[in-house]
Amino acid sequence: MKFDVVAHYDVVVMGSGISGLICALELAKQGKSVFIATKEAVTESSSLYAQGGIAVPMKEGDSISKHLEDTLKVGANLCDKDVATEIINSSHDALKKLMAYGVRFDLDKTGSIHQTKEAAHSFSRVCHVGGDATGRFVVKSLIDSACREPRISISQGTSVLSIVNEENIFALLLEDVAKNNYVISAKDLIIASGGVGQLYNITSNPLVCTGDGIALAFRIGAKLMDMEMMQFHPTVCTEKGDPFLITEAIRGEGGKLRNINGEYFACKYHELGELAPRDVLARAIYKEMEKTKSKFVYLDLSNFDADYFGNRFPTVFKECVERKINLFSEGIPVSPAAHYYIGGIKTDLYCRTSISSLWAIGECSCNGFHGANRLASNSLLECIVTPHFLVQSILAESSCSSRKADFVEIGVDDCEYDDKTVLSIKAELQRNNLLHLGLIRNGVSLKEHIAWLKNLINLHNVFCYSQSTHTMELRNMILLSYLIAKAAYARNYSIGVHYREDSPVDKSVVINHSLLDIKNIKNTLINDNFDLRSPIFLK
User: Which of 5, 380, 440, 464 would suit a FRET pair with 415, their CA atoms being 20 to 30 Å apart?
Assistant: First the structure.
């Protein structure tokens, strides 16, 4: 179908989380015209719900090298050391730049930035805002700045349905809040669309996190890396309401885990107890829930003074009071939930993808920083550091061509599902993904799931574009579920968040990143190929 291009920009940013907003602001300062497309309100992203903070080594005795050591250890030998080194080296400068946008971090009694401890950190190095509302305050400051910038256009309630890449010009088919379709174009496209938590029926992620940017990039040939790596947060409250994240900083300051029989158990599974790496602790909680036939364990707050807790963790305190949870006499009921996506669009440190002028940043991208298990509060660190690398690269590499597309041909079908059908298919997909692609995996289950997903792929024509947001969202979720399952099946050993009960950790295995591209995936769909010898792993 032929579409007229209604507007042209230097850069389009898909997503309005912290990394996307910083990119837009920094590019606008350099005279670039920027269009931000965000699927819901500009405030609605995973960034908004980030409670913990930003990991930056600042305390006496701490150092860049110690932060790096913690990152590499938790990442289970899959981190890209050079990438991790550069990001942590740049942490102080990025923090100062963030503060220049009006972010005011919580201070201690001496007037210095207060830092707390989270899981697997050897020092207290997590900076926070508003107690446990870091994401909300950072996002607000950045949005306030973006709204004052005349070179930035923000389109809320706007979904990207397809991407066409022709002669170094990107054309994007959009659907706005009134369900109108139109096309814009840009020289550079930044995908900052967040994670994939909505692939699971229990997740800390908001409804917008359906992996659209990853799926769209894959369809036009971008390579994907480590797609099997989904991190489950150990402590999410799912009782008396929707899943609600319970920040790790509570455990960093003395919160203890006990099962419904009143037994403290964390130290049985790891010497760091409640501050064990997230993958270890999430599986420990899962095992205790199985053992006691319970839906949760308790986060015991008996070590806390009630007034201190209310002031230090106001977001958690308010939510628990509203849910009528007996915070101090009983504790908070918690269980693991899909939280942070470590895999995604393969990039280098500078956010370059395998396609020229296509950039990916934040949770939708994968540069090797987090390895096989993300260190707590390293995600927001990555989000504030890498935009500056990306902007430098765009300014150095962007084409000076003034060519603009007047129209574009996009292959769309007329398929559109009603809301009830979409919700039904999604619900079954989410349940099955949690069952087969959750905390504990095995080869037999994965193979069954892949076959089921392949049938969904054929049934719902996932490689075609639609003019409907709901239809494309569903197709993206099915496609990504299949890609995650394929990568999880191919990595037939346990590492970090990818735990195969049929193959425990094997220290003799040569550990590499997994890599998927559209050519080898379409080939496996045609040939029913489950051969583990296929070239899926990078050296």
Answer: 5
